[in-house]
Amino acid sequence: MHYESPVRNPLILGDKSYSEITNDIAKPIESKAPRSWWIAFSIAFVMFMWGLGCILYTIGTGIGVWGLNKTVDWAWDITNFVWWVGIGHAGTLISAVLLLFRQKWRMAINRSAEAMTIFSVIQAGLFPLIHMGRIWNAYWVMPIPNQYGSLWVNFNSPLLWDVFAISTYLTVSTVFWYVGLIPDFAMIRDRAINPVQKHIYKILSFGWGGQAKHWQRFEEVSLVLAGLATPLVLSVHTIVSFDFATSVIPGWHTTIFPPYFVAGAIFSGFAMVQTLLLIVRKIFKMEDYINIEHIEMMNIVIMVTGSIVGVAYITELVIAWYSGVEYEQYAFLNRATGPYWWAYWSMMTCNVFSPQFMWSKKLRTNLIFTFVISIVVNIGMWFERFVIIVTSIHRDYLPSSWSMFSPTFVDIGIYIGTIGFFFVLFLLYARTFPVIAQAELKTILKSSGENFKKHHNEHGTH
Amino acid sequence: MTENNKYWRGIEEQSNPDLTKKLADNEFATAPETLDFIGDDNVGEAETSRRDFLKFMGFTTAAATLAACEAPIVESIPYVVKPDSLTPGLPSFYATSMFDGQDYASLLIKTREGRPILVQPNCEAAFNTCTNARLQSSVLNLYDGARLRGPKVNKKDSSWATAISQAKSMISDTSVLLTPTIISPSLKKAIETLNVKHITFDAISQSKRLDVYEELLGKRALPSVSLLNAHVVVGLGADFLGDYDGQRFGADYANRRKPSPEMLRHIQIEAGMSISGANADLRVKARVSEYELVLGHIYNYIAKKVGQPTLKLYPLREDIKMQVLNSAQELFDAAQHGLIVSSFNSVTGEKLALAINQMIGSSCIDTSNLVYLNSSKDEEIGQLIIDVAEGKVDTLITLDINPAHDITGLDLSKVNLVAISEREDETASQAKVILPLSHYLESWGDFIPKDGVYSVAQPTINPLFDSKSAIEILFTLSGKNATAKELLQESVEDLGLAKGWNSLLHDGFAETSAGKTLSFSDLTIIDITDVAIGKPLTELEFYTYSKTGMGIGKYANNPWAFELPDPITRLSWDNYLVMSAADAVKLGVENWAESNGAMNGTTVNLKVNGVVLTNVAIWVQPGQTEGTIGMALGFGRTMAGKVGNNIGWNALQLLPSDESYAAVETISATENEHEFASVQLAHTMMGRKIVNEVNLPDYLNKPASEWNERPTFESFRGPLQPSEANLWDDHDHVTSHMWNLSIDLNACDGCGACIVACHLENNVPIVGKDEVRRHRDMHWLRIDRYYSSDMTPEKAKKEGVGAIEKYAKMEVPSESPSVTFMPVMCVQCNHAPCETVCPVGATVHSREGLNHMAYNRCIGTRYCANNCPYKVRRFNWFNYKGNDKFADVNPSQDDYGRMVLNPDVTVRSRGVIEKCSMCIQSIQMGKLKAKKAGRPLKEGDIDIACLNSCGSDAIVFGDINNPENKINEKKEDPRMYYLLEEIGTQPSVFYQTKVRNRA
After folding, report:
1. What is the ipTM of this complex?
2. Which chain A residue has its CA at the smallest distance from B837's CA?
3. pTM of this prediction?
C-alpha cells in the first residue's frame, strides 16, 4: 500500500530528476571557475600568505612579537583556537548525530558542513602549535617512547587531553567525510573526460562500483562512524573547556563550562555553516537543494543553542554572586563593567540577543537577515572566548599583577591568515569536490512522492 | 727442469704476456701532467684537457668553500699550576669596602674563577653592614664596556707615562682638585702631597648641617645616629631608610619594628612619598619650604613644656597642625627615647632639630663618634664657579666626579681639565688628559667612614682595562712611585692597628680607637634665639630626591639599576616629576593606561631657577604634598654609555645641590605624551586580604584569630582548613628536607636590594624599557606596593554603596595613603597549579617542598603562568641574549657584561618559562658542603640571594624538618599567614603579618 506523509514538504525543489541532480552537482567541478571564484580565492590566498608570514616571523623571533605579557599569557592565540574548534563542531553534529536521528534534511548540507569542520579544525590545530615558545619541541606532547628513561607526558594536563581530543576528532571527521565522498568521487570519475582528472578521481573513489554490496558496506561504515563520532561532538569541546575549567583562575574555574562550551560550539558551528552555504547555494545555483527549509532548520538550532548559551552566561553570574567568593564575584563584575566591558556586551548582544529574532518565522526565513545574524553570531562567539580568556586573567588574584592586553599586527595577521587559509581550502574544495552528497541526496528525491505522481500523471506508467 | 717451471697469476698472463707486462710496468701510474698549460703560451697544445681543468677548479672551489666554514673554536685553557685559592667550580669570597661619594659599605665579594659576580654584606663589619640595591648592582659597573680602556691625551689614546707627564705639566699652584667626599686616609695623604687646592662636592649637599657641627664640635662631620634605643622617631624630610646622609638604618629599624609593646613608633613628615614615609605609622604631608616651620612649631611645643623661650613663628597650615603638634607631644613623651632626624641642607633646620633632640634629652645621637661621609662646603663650590669663570683656575683635576653634569654653572671650557674617571663622561670628554680609574673591585683602598672604624678595599680581579686606582694615580701625579698595595700598607702601618695585615684583609675592617669628641649630653645647649624662619612658599615648589636604584647617578650605565622598579612608583627606566593629584587636576595633566596596559602621561614645560626643561614627564603620586613637585637625581645623562644615555632629565640642572627647594617659575602642560615603563598597573588591594595588616594595640590585646583569620571551608565534616579540604594526594613532606621561607612584612622596608641580588645570582634577563612597559619584566622576585584606598568594603557596606561603584572607588588610591610592601617570589606551592597543567611535565615537585622548573623540558605553552595565582612565572618572550632589541641593555650580549653571569645558573633560552628556584644551586652547594664535612646541614649553610642581601632580616629560610632551624619558630608565629591560602596551594613561602604602631 502506498502511504504519503501529509506534512512533510519536499526537501529538493525544482522537479529534479536523477540526472539533473548529477549535472547540477558536478557542474562546478566540470566547468571553468567563475570570475567570482578567482576573486575570492585571490583574496583568501593573500590573507593566507600574510598569516603565514606572521607565523614564520613569530617562530623566527619569539612569542614576544605578540601582545602577550607576564599576566596575560594567552589571548588571541587560544581565543582563535577555541573559536575555530567551535566552528568545527557543526560538521560532526550534522553528519553524525542527525544521521543517527534520521534527519534527512541534513543531506543537503552535511558535505559542506563536514568540510568546514575539517578545515576549521586544521586552523584550530595551528594555534596550540604556534603558541608554543619552542614549537620545534612540539612533539614532546605526544607520549612517544624516548631515551630519557621515564620521561613521559603529564597526563594530568588538560592541554594533553586537548592533543588527544583534537587529533581524534580530526581523524574521525576526516574518515567519515571521506567515506561519504567515495560514491560521489566515483560519479565524477565516470563523467570525467580529461584523463588526468579521471585518473585522480579513480584513485580517490577507491574502485567504487556502485554494487549492492558496496552500498551495503557504505551504509554500515557510515553508521558505525556516526556512532563513533557522536560522543566526539560532546567530548571535544568538553575537553577544550577543561583547559579553563580545571584551572584555579576565577572566571575559568567553572563547572558549567563543558555543556556551555558544547552549546556554544554548536551555535557557532551552525552559524558558520549558514554563512558558507548561503554563499555556496547562490554562487553554484543550488537553491533547490539547499532551500529555505534547511536554512530555517538551522536558524532554529542557532536560536536554541544561543538561548542555552545565554542561560549559561546568566548562570555564571548568579553562581558568582551566590558563591560569596570575593575573587569570583569581582571577575564577573569586571567582565561586565571593567575595562573590557565592550567585549562582554558585544558578546551578550551578538550571542544572546541577536538569535532571539529567530522566534519570528518571517525573519528566520529571510536570507539577508539570516546571513547577517550568522556573521554576528560568529563575531559574538569570538568575543565569548576573548572574554573568558583575557578578561579572566588580566585581573586575577593579586592586583599588583593586573594588566591589559592589546594585539599586535602579528596577532591580527595570524588570525586573518587562518581565515584566509580556511577559505583557500574551502574554495579549492568547492571546485574539486562534490559539495552536496548527491548519492545520498538521490535517496530522498522521492520522499514526498509529489514529483513521482506528477511525473506519473504526465507520462503514464512505463 | 725446475727452472722451466713458470707460474702465472692468471689465465690472461699466459695467453697475453705482452699486455700483462705492459700493465705491470704501469702499476704505479705516473701523475697526469697537471695544469702544465700554466705559464705556457701555447695553451691550446697543453696536455691538460678542459675537462681536467674544470675538475681541478671544482675541487679547489669546494675546498676553499669548506675551509671558509670555520667551526667556532671555544678555547678553554686549564691551569698549569692551580692557584692555591682557586678551585674551578667553587666560589671564593673576599672582604672589601667601597665608598663612591654616596654609599659606604663593607662587603663580601663572591668570585668565581677569578671573576667577581655577587655582592654580599659583610655582616661582621662595624658600620653600614647592609647592602642596598645600588651596591648590589655595583658589580655590573665593573663589566661595563663603556669604561675607558686606557689613558687619553687630547682625546687620543696614549700611554700612562705620557698622560701622567702631560698632566703633571698642567698642574700648578692655581690648580684645583675636585673630588667627592674623601674618607680614605691614604688618598688624603696623596692629595696633601699633590699640594693643590682640594674641593669636595657632594651631589646631595649636607653642607649647612656640617657647618652647624663644625661650629659645635670643631669637626666637619655629622653625628652618628642609632635607632636601637629609640621609641619614637620623627623623620623630617629625611628618607633614612632610603638615602640619608650615608648612614644606613635598615637593620636597626627592622630590629626596633619587631612588634612588642616597645615597638618603635615612626612619624614621617615629608613632601614626596619616600621609602621611609611608606613605612611610617603616621605620615604628615608637609612642603619642603615648610620643613623649618614644622621644626619651629615642634620646638615651640616642647620648649613651652620644658619652660624655655619660644620662637615667633608663622602659623602652620590647619590641615597638618594637629598632626605636627601631636608628633611633638609624642616626642616629648618619649624623652630620651625620642629622636628627630632631618637631613635637608639648612642651618636653621639642623639647629632646630638638634635643639629639639637636646630638649628631650635624646639618647639616640652619638656626637663622640662622628660620621665623615659628607664634607662638601657650598661656599667653596660657589667660589670655584666664580674662580673658574674669572679664569683664576688654570687646571681642574676631577677625581671620580662629573661636574659637567652635577654642578650647574661651572664652565669647564675655561679650564684645562685633567679627568680621573672610570668612563669618558660629560666631564672627561672635555678633558685634555683622561686618566682611567679602576673600579672599586679592581682597587686597593682604605676608609675611615666613622670614628673607630677603619676598613680596607682589596682588588678581587686584575684591572680589566689599562686603569689604576685613585691612590696610585694621585701619588703618581705627586711624583711618588709605588704600587697601591705598598701605599696602603704604609697607611696601615701609620695607623698602628692591632690587627695584622692578613687578618685586616681577611676581615675587611678593623676597629680603631673611638672618637674623642664631646658626647651628645655634654654638648652645649644650642642657641636658637637668632634663628629666623621664613614664610613657606605658596606657589608650586620644586625639590630633588634620590632614588634607591640610581642614587646620584653613579649607576647611569647600569641596566640593573634602571630595570629595578622604583619601590614607590614602581616605574623603571625613568625619572619624572612626582606631583599630587590635586596639582595634576589644576594643571590639566594625568597618567593613563594604554590599551596594552602600558602607562602614558602628559608632559609639562617647566622653568625653575631660570632653567627651562621641556616635555618633562609627570607622575601623579598618591601621598605627594600638594604644591610640591619632585624629581630624582642621576638621570638625564648624555655620555654615560649606551644603556643610560638620554634617559630622563637632570634634576641638578634646575636645582643646584646646595638648595633644598625652589619656586617653580612657570609650568604648563604640553600636547606631548611620555611613555612610562610601569610594572604595576593597579595600586590598591581592592579590599582583599593580601598584605595582612594589624595595628599594634590589636596585635597585643586581641587573639590572633581576630586579626589573622585563616580561611575555612564549610563541609559535611564541619569547617575545614584549606589544607584539609583537598582533592590531591599529599607529597611526602617528612622524609627529606622541607624548605620553607618566611617573609616578615614588618621588617621589609621595600628597598629593593633583594630584587637586584636575585638578578645577579640567577642571571635574570634584563629586557629594557619597551619590554618592561609591556609588562614583560622578568623579575623572579618583585616587591608589590599597595596604597590604601578611601573606599573599603566595610565603608561601602555602611554607606550602602553598590558593588560597581565600590570596586571603581577602591581602585583609586587615597590621597594620603598607607603604603605596604610585599615581596613576592614563587611561593613553591605544595599543590602547585602550575604543575598539574604542564603537558610535558616541565615543572614538577621536589621531595624537598620545592617546585622545580626544567628549562630543557619546557615547550613554552605558558599555561603554568596563566594558572599561577601569584603570577610569578616569567616567559622568555625573545632570545634576550641574542636579539638585537636587547643589545644595548642586556649584559649577556656584551663580551664584558657576560662575565657577570653566574656559572652555576643556566641562561635560559627563548620560549621557556622561568621563575624563582629558591636558589636551588645554593641549596645543592650547601648540602654538598655539609656532606663533605660529614655533618648534617645547619642554618647558614645555604646562601639564598634575597635573604643575603636583606639588611632587615625580613627573610628567613630553613628546613622545617629540622627543629633547630629558625624557620620553625617563624611558622609557629601567630603573625604567620599564607598568601591566598584559600586556593589550597599550600605554599612553602609564608608571610608575617605587618604590624603598624598606631591605634
Report:
1. 0.92
2. A157
3. 0.89
